[in-house]
């Protein structure tokens, strides 16, 4: 009985710690969203013009990929809770795969922009109006930081997958994968906001 109570406290503490961590992440991106809003209000027309240079199809495809990864993440946890370990492993693997695809698409999108001479402090970019310079500066910083978070999430999910394979995570002890899922859902949610801000300006 005592061990059960202690385990419950550990689980609650782990979840509280994760929510506090997620709150700091929200503050970080929230500050960037605020900066974006201020700069866009000052240079609306130039932000719109710069956004025309982004590929909306690519942005939409990556959005679908991440939203699908959120679904597979949720399914992996649900299957594990129900004791269906093999199905959970399948959905965990799919989530990792979708994350890697997202980063691959983002890599090719960035390299295309860089190949056209559009990157922070590039001579071509610095010749553009101030609003467009600010737009692309925010684009590279915010999508780049988001990409780092996706990469970190993939690394964490790989460890969760290995732990599930080795039965260190089971249907009796799954708080770590639940916390990993919360982080992954936050990363996906941030992209849902980034996509319209950069790709759907009209």
Could you explain the architecture of this structure?
- This protein is mostly helical and 202 residues long.
- It has a single domain, classed as Four Helix Bundle (Hemerythrin (Met), subunit A), CATH 1.20.120.80.
- It has helices at residues 2-42, 44-51, 56-81, 85-115, 123-126, 130-165, 175-199.
- Helix 1 crosses helix 2.
- The protein is elongated, with a radius of gyration of 20 Å.
- The termini are far apart.
- 26% of the residues are buried.
Write the layout of secondary structure elements.
Layout: H1 2-42, H2 44-51, H3 56-81, H4 85-115, H5 123-126, H6 130-165, H7 175-199
Which structural class matches the secondary elements? Answer: mainly alpha
At the fourth level of CATH, the homologous superfamily is Cytochrome c oxidase, subunit III, four-helix bundle
N-to-C order of helices and strands: HHHHHHH
Name of the CATH first level: Mainly Alpha
CATH topology: Four Helix Bundle (Hemerythrin (Met), subunit A)
Beta-strand portion reads: under 5%
Shape: elongated
Count the E strands: 0
Low-confidence stretches: 1-8
- Beginning-to-end CA distance, first to last residue: 61 Å
Count of domains = 1
Q: How many helices in DSSP terms?
A: 7
Per CATH, the architecture is Up-down Bundle
Mean pLDDT: 93
Radius of gyration computed on alpha carbons = 20 Å
**What is the helix content?**
over 70%
How would a crystallographer describe the biggest sheet?
A: none
